[in-house]
Every structure is written in structure tokens, then in C-alpha cells.
């Protein structure tokens, strides 16, 4: 069932149910009122009958009879009874033609009035005192008005209910269509978006409602998809280029060497060129393999407690082996006093590779100027800070530095493949961390690697 039909059905059922309950309540109250009104009319007739039979001193009995018979409508099947009350005998002379319980008379004597119903015949009794004499006046009649009144009321309520139900269902259809119209518009727009026109976006209305949030969410998703498609296309084209260049060089050198007899030095030079290009190809393929393996969210990696201070010392030793004479220095000023804070859950080799990539880039792109390697720690996270005084990263290139094979526009003079930072980013994400980059052109770059501490992970676990 469509959502619009569900909304219409729910709206209609709820509203019709409320109207039905209100109609039932009105019918119930009208029924109760008809009883009370008829009893009131019976009591008036009873008092007039009593005053006509026993007029007060100074009044004319003809006046009461005239009012009772001419001014007031005679009730259907009306009957009147006057019953004397004999206190001396301690009893009430109950007439045989009245099938009323003795408690009715006793209640009239006690309270001065009482009502009783037997089927459709209603009784009203009042206590009337004339001089020293007390009598009970009982007037009974059949309540034909109630049946007619309630029949008419039922017809009116039923007609109103049918009309209201029809109007509610129609209003529900219009209401559901109006509410879901923006959703239909979004659906129509999304249907027109494919891989060939991912630049299109869903129109966002000005209102700050759920529909606007839905459209904004779709646009955010399309932004990510467009970026992913562009990254994939760039990755394929760059990977093809990076892999194709050394292969072309190897094939060219081999073809040239095999064209004719040459001296040993020429063969040695050709083989050296092929070896250099093969090593380059091997480095690229190994880097791509590492980059692919870190895309499995660490499911196949063994995690243990890693001391971040020891990690920094290991990274410093690796930097010394790769670039002898580097100016990488460990800044101890931010080290925490509590050793237990300097611990994270992770894979030591992967974290060493990630931090080493950043440090090696800092050394390379600063032309071996001083590089600071610092560590700060709190109860919930460890922060590794790598700061250099190099060429910096252009602001327009910052959003793409973690894309495979991407290289900043000011790195033409430096050798590289654009795989180190994407690999580092995958490793840090695998460890539930983040990388924060702050850079200024020709002033240097500061990179912060934030990792959740081992104690914080244990508390959450």
C-alpha cells in the first residue's frame, strides 16, 4: 500500500472514529435529557393536579383545571392518581391499579418527589399537603415523544455521519497528496540522475522541515557519489599511467637491446634501466596492494596495546635509515606524566607505516629542514603531531590529498606516486582515528593524527 493511501486511511479512520464517538455521546446525552424532560413535565402535571384537587386558600380550582387542560398539552395515555397518606395508621393506601413498588411511595414521602419507569410508561409522584392532610399525587404517561425525538435524532446523526465520512475521505486524499507532493517531486528528480549526470542536484525548498532535510541528505549523498566516481576515474587513469610508464620503459629497453649485437656495456646499461623501472613498478604494485588491504576495515588485522611513545621512537629510527642526516626531532614537552595514557589499541606495524609516511613526506618536502615529532595524550585520545617547515600544500589541493595518485600542484620537483597519504588515511581510519591537516604555502605543514586511547576503548567496550 502506498504511503499516501496509508495516510488517507489512517486520517479517515481516526477522524471518523472521533465523529462516531461524538455522535454516540450526543445520542446518549439526548436520550438522558429526554427522560429528564419527560419526568419534569410529569411533575408539573402532578403539581397542577394536586392544586386543582386541593386548591390553596383563596384560589380557584377552575383556574388550575383551565391551565392544565387548555394551556398544557395532555400527555399520551395520561393517568392521574391521588393517594392519601395515613400517618396515624402508619401505612399508605396503595391503589391496586398501580403496579408500583412500595419503595416508590416511601421515597416520595421521604424526599417529596420520586420518578419511576416501567417500559415506556413513566411515573412521577409528588407529596402534597393540604391543610393537615397529605396526599401523594401520581401522574403517569407513555413517553411517545422520546421515540419520535430519538428516531429523528438517529436519522440526522446518520446522515451527518455519512456526509462527514465522505468529506473526510476526500479531504484525506487531498491532504495526503499535498503532504507527499514534495516527496514525489524529489523522486522524479532522483529518477533523472544517473552516472552520466551526477552533477545534478535535488531542489531544496526554503522550509526547515523533514522534506528539506531529505532533499539535503540526497544532495549530500550525490556529492559523495560524484566524488567517489571522480576518484575512481582518476584512480584508474592514474594507475594505468603509473603502471604503464615503467612497463613501456622496460619493453623499450628490451626491444632495443635485442635488435642487434652490442657491447657488454650497452647490455649492462639496458639491464640497469630495466631493473630500475622494474623496481619502480614493484614499489607501485606493493603500495597498491597495501592500499587495497587497508580497505577491509581491519577485519584481518591483529590489534593489541601499542605504546605511542615507543611508536614515535621507532618512526624516528626508520626515518634515520631512509634519510640519513635528517633533522627529525622528538618534542617531549607535551608528553603526559602518566605512562598509561600513552597507549592505543592497534597494529604496531601498520601505525608505524602510517606515521612514517607522514614523517618521510615532511622530510622530503621541506628539503631536509627541521621536522618536529610530538605526542600529547588525554584520558580519551592520543595526538601525534608532525610539523615541518616545507613548501606547504595549496589550499585548493587540501580536499584531495588523500585521493590515490593525487599530488599537490607544487610538488613537481619532488619524486613521488601519490599513494603514501591515502594509505596512511586508510590505516588511521582502520584504527577509528582521524587526520587533521593545517598548512600554509611556503610556511610549512602541521598534521595531527588523533587516535582513541586504549582506556577509552575499554570503557566503551
UniProtKB/TrEMBL annotation:
The GO molecular function terms of this record are: phosphorelay sensor kinase activity
Q: Where in the cell is it found?
A: Membrane
Keyword flag Secreted? no
The catalytic activity of this protein is classed by the Enzyme Commission as 2.7.13.3
> Is-annotated flag, keyword Lipoprotein?
no
Annotated ranges, domain Histidine kinase: 238-455
Query: SMART domains of this UniProt entry?
Result: HAMP, HATPase_c, HisKA
Q: Which InterPro entries match?
A: HAMP_dom, HATPase_C_sf, HATPase_dom, His_kinase_dom, HisK_dim/P_dom, HisK_dim/P_sf, Sig_transdc_His_kin-like_C, TCS_sensor_his_kinase
* Top-level class of the enzyme under EC nomenclature: transferase
Q: Which reaction does it catalyse?
A: ATP + protein L-histidine = ADP + protein N-phospho-L-histidine
**Sequence ranges assigned to domain HAMP in this UniProt record:** 177-230
What keywords are annotated for this sequence in UniProt? Answer: Kinase, Membrane, Phosphoprotein, Transferase, Transmembrane, Transmembrane helix, Two-component regulatory system
Residue ranges of the TM segments: 6-30, 156-180
Tell me a GO cellular component.
Answer: plasma membrane
One family name in Pfam for this protein:
HisKA
Query: Which named protein is this?
Result: histidine kinase
**Organism for this UniProt entry:** Chitinophaga skermanii
Amino acid at each position: 500500500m502506498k504511503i499516501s493511501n496509508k495516510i488517507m486511511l489512517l486520517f479517515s479512520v481516526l477522524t471518523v472514529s472521533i465523529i462516531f464517538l461524538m455522535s454516540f455521546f450526543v445520542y446518549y446525552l439526548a436520550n438522558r435529557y429526554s427522560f429528564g424532560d419527560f419526568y419534569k413535565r410529569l411533575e408539573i402535571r402532578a403539581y397542577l393536579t394536586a392544586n386543582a384537587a386541593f386548591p390553596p386558600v383563596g384560589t380557584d380550582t377552575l383556574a388550575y383545571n383551565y391551565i392544565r387542560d387548555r394551556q398544557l398539552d395532555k400527555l399520551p395515555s395520561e393517568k392521574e392518581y391521588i393517594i392519601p397518606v395515613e400517618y396515624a395508621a402508619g401505612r399508605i393506601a396503595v391503589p391496586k391499579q398501580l403496579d408500583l413498588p412500595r419503595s416508590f411511595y416511601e421515597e416520595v414521602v421521604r424526599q417529596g418527589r420520586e420518578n419511576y419507569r416501567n417500559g415506556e410508561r413513566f411515573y412521577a409522584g409528588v407529596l402534597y399537603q393540604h391543610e393537615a392532610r397529605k396526599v401523594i399525587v401520581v401522574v403517569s404517561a407513555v413517553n411517545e415523544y422520546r421515540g419520535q425525538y430519538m428516531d429523528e435524532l438517529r436519522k440526522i446523526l446518520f446522515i451527518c455521519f455519512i456526509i462527514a465520512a465522505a468529506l473526510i475521505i476526500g479531504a484525506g486524499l487531498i491532504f495526503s497528496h499535498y503532504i507527499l507532493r514534495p516527496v514525489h517531486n524529489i523522486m522524479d528528480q532522483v529518477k533523472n540522475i544517473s552516472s552520466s549526470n551526477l552533477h545534478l542536484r535535488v531542489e531544496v525548498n526554503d522550509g526547515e522541515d523533514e522534506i528539506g532535510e531529505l532533499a539535503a541528505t540526497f544532495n549530500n549523498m550525490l556529492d559523495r557519489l560524484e566524488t567517489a566516481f571522480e576518484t575512481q576515474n582518476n584512480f584508474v587513469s592514474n594507475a594505468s599511467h603509473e603502471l604503464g610508464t615503467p612497463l613501456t620503459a622496460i619493453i623499450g629497453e628490451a626491444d632495443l637491446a635485442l635488435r642487434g649485437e652490442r657491447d657488454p656495456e650497452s647490455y649492462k646499461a639496458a639491464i640497469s634501466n630495466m631493473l630500475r623501472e622494474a623496481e619502480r613498478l614493484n614499489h607501485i604494485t606493493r603500495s597498491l596492494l597495501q592500499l587495497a588491504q587497508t580497505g577491509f576495515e581491519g577485519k584481518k588485522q591483529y590489534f593489541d596495546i601499542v605504546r605511542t611513545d615507543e611508536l614515535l621512537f621507532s618512526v624516528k629510527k626508520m626515518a634515520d635509515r631512509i634519510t640519513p642526516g635528517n633533522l627529525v626531532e622528538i618534542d617531549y614537552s607535551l608528553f603526559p606524566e602518566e605512562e598509561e595514557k600513552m597507549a592505543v589499541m592497534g597494529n604496531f606495524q601498520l601505525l608505524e607505516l602510517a606515521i612514517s609516511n607522514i614523517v618521510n613526506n615532511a622530510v622530503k618536502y621541506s628539503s631536509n629542514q627541521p621536522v618536529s615529532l610530538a605526542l600529547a595524550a588525554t584520558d580519551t585520545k592520543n595526538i601525534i603531531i608532525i610539523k615541518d617547515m616545507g613548501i606547504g600544500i595549496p589550499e585548493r589541493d587540501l580536499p584531495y590529498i588523500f585521493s590515490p595518485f593525487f599530488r599537490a600542484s607544487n610538488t613537481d620537483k619532488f619524486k613521488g606516486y601519490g599513494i603514501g597519504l591515502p594509505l596512511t588515511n586508510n590505516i588511521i581510519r582502520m584504527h577509528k582515528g582521524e587526520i587533521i591537516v593545517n598548512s600554509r604555502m611556503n610556511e610549512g605543514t602541521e598534521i595531527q593524527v588523533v587516535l582513541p586511547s586504549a582506556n577509552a576503548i575499554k570503557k566503551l567496550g
